[in-house]
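Two folds, back to back.
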Amino acid sequence: MKSSSHFPERRKKTHYFAQVVRDTGVLINVERAMIDSSEGEALIDIPDESCAMIKERLADLGAAVRVLDEVITLDESLCVDCGACISICPQSLFIRYGLEDQDG
């Protein structure tokens, strides 16, 4: 299951995912992360059966977790071919299914 995690300003050096993996034994796949000195955001993939436990443990460490249970779909009737979706898709979904720019 995909989840979005937001980490507040770090008052001490905390390795959120390493701590959670150590404490729970559940492997977490970090698909995308943007973390700087003030805060962080990460897209993670965790086993469905461990979702509640991982969410609770991350919350204990001060992270806000949102489960992404809605599937992202491409509505071709609204698409203007701006390419923004290609740059943020962690799974390269649009390239995999042949939606990449055919000219280049």
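---
second:
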Amino acid sequence: MAPEPPVSLLRVHARHAPWNARGLAAHVTALVDAAGIRPTNASARAIPTARAVRFYVATGLIDHPEGRGTAATYHYRHLLQLLAIKIRQREGQTLDGIRREMGELSGDLLEKRVAQSLAPALGSGADQSVMSGSDGPVIWHRIAVAEGIELSVRSDSAASDDDTLVAMREAVRAALGREEHR
């Protein structure tokens, strides 16, 4: 059986989205560590932080997330963008140079470049610890709020206890403010 192409192996990581800034940074950190990526520029850090993610958004290196503040969520494209930044820093590129390059890349080309750079780690299974993330599967609580509206909360979240879930549901209903949504 032929090995899976690197793009397919990279796409598996999309199932972990959405992330907050800290979760995105942690996921990229694990992939960067698995691939052995270290920047050649002494001023660049090898591992991204939530603060770096927000900085990259503010400077246009990463697309704006959905939502704002602590409710901001990042998706697969953000994962690709942050990985591309770390890969290009490893190759000695400056942030200004990376910004220019990223503006010219389509989503498919960005994905292919990242997958090619991570191919040895993806192909060897070194990223498997990132994919599992824990000993068991990720479980989500789905809470119906109103017709067509639901909340999704991961079971390993601090907000996954029953009282908090009910409080969040009622807060969203109150924010909707109309009786027909209750």
